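QUALITY CONTROL LOG
STEP: pairwise intake check
CHECKER ROLE: data steward
CRITERIA: each record must contain a sequence immediately followed by its structure tokens, with no blank fields

ENTRY 1 OF 2
RESULT FIELD BELOW
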Amino acid sequence: MTQTVPAPLPADFFPADCPVQSVPVLGSRKWAWRIVRCLEGGPRRFSELRVPLAGITAKVLAESLRSMEQDGAVVRTEYAENPPRVEYALTPLGRTLLGPMDAVCEWSRENLGSLLAARLEYERAER
């Protein structure tokens, strides 16, 4: 029985017009997708975001929001009130993430059982 050896992966495997590394809002921030989901219904204050994002520190939330703002996915609006009020909202670009997120969630619902079974089988084989 002969096996076909696949060709080595070239250094330019990822084409320049598909810059996987430069799409930080999709993966470089652990909390980004959860933040997007929290902002789906409209603008929220920082303290409102901390409630469903149990486990996130204020520092990490601030860094994540800043990064998402830099990427153009979130807009920060300051209101000249006393006390000052700041809200965060999805931009039109940020809203384009909702469709792909829905697709990933649907895939997860459909395949979670198989994924967990595969992990369990792998762990049993490793022992």
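ENTRY 2 OF 2
RESULT FIELD BELOW
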Amino acid sequence: MSHHKLLPPAALAAAAALLLSGCFAADTGSTDSADRRIRLVMMQPPRSALSPLSDDAFKLSRWSAAETLVNLDADGDAEPALAASWTRTNPTTWEFTIRKAVKFHDGTELTATAVKRSLDAAASAAPKPRILDGVTLTTTAAQGDTVTVTTAAADPLLPQRLSSPQLSILAERAYTGKTVNPVGAGTGAFVLKSVNGTSSAVLDRNEHYWGGRAKAAGIDVSFVPDGTARAAALRSGEADLVESVPVSQAALVPPERLSEVPMPRTNTLYLNTSRGVFADPGLRAAARAAIDTGSLVRGVYEGRADAAAGLLGPALPWAAKRRGRTAPTAPATPSGQTVTIGTFTDRAELPEVAAALQQQLQHAGFTVQLDVREYANIEKDALAGKFDAFVLSRATVLDSGDPVAYLRSDFGSEGSFNLSRLRDPAVDRAIALAEAAEPGDERRAAVLDAESAVLNTDAAVPMLHERVIQGSSAALTGAARDPRERRLVTLDTHLK
């Protein structure tokens, strides 16, 4: 595998200039705030043509274009959205009453049948959305406004699960065979009008939104993976809202234009347990012991992150009660074994983290090579287990507001995002117990037990918990500061 070097500063500056000259919509100059459009710069381009069955669903959610049956409040508890109410009729069955007088962007009515169609498409997708890992559900649309959702096993977290943007409810026009196209098919405050590949998207205000009238006329989205270019767009006034400002660029932006939010996001080194050097538990423990997380926080993140004590971070205060490793493996002594670490450029800090890890692991006795690409070009190889290790910034409660979905997806034997290729019966049992636990203290304790089981394997070395740095112009107000990365542009977001 090749070692892709980072671009020098001069090349980055030139790339930024090119991006700035061609990617951003011009300001209309309107003095009426109701007629002004928001110029939004996002970090990662669509990976799956904005299909809600992929991670692209979170873009639709952050644009207030697509909606789900359920939302989550600040504590992670379920609250009504497209479902006005719900009842659990037995351990495996829930009845959801659909909100009345809601229309899709194409003018068709939101009905129980439409809800069933969207949920069935997600349940039968291959691969399934992460939120449905290990879950089998069936739906029945009663005449009128009731949808019954039945799971194969008791699932106390089903309402929270249905809050995942990957289970957005779309109009019939969105579904053609196995393809899902969300253009003009949502129910949200903004209508997705067009998508220009991986470059841009255009949304207009939904004048008939059931939740009220948005204050902004629309959203012009540009996808700019280069962090220098995103920060430059903010400084130059060519962007009103920037999704993620790299730490390295934050000092160049006036502090009053930045918002810093602790995220339920962990920067983790996933170690391949199925093949190669790190199939040896002792060498995994050696890698864990060699990593100085404090230096990563100070050096790469300039103090704008928190050193990790476990997989779950300060965005989940109850996780501070963690039990930690209950059966740590003694580190072996490396003797020059060669390992390849993969990561991606879309998050500007990750290549720097990988370079720092290279030095730390080489100091411990490993020989380390790096493979750094854009995420779209490296994800397939990472999921196929082609790296000895992979550096990933991973949201731990992205889907249901509950860490169990993340634990199963990333560390369960059948998990769809199991970069470590981990197959450990103790981990699977702990995750299953957490899944079955009732919401509240019982579930939180089970989650911490599952976290300990994962840490005991050294399949993943949590390094730090990120804080997102969100940038906005002086004229912008009302942007959401959402640690779950589900909301960004809302009804209240507008230019003064």
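INTAKE CHECK: passed for both entries
DESCRIPTIVE NOTE, ENTRY 2: The chain has three domains: 28-65+180-258+469-495, 70-164, 261-468.
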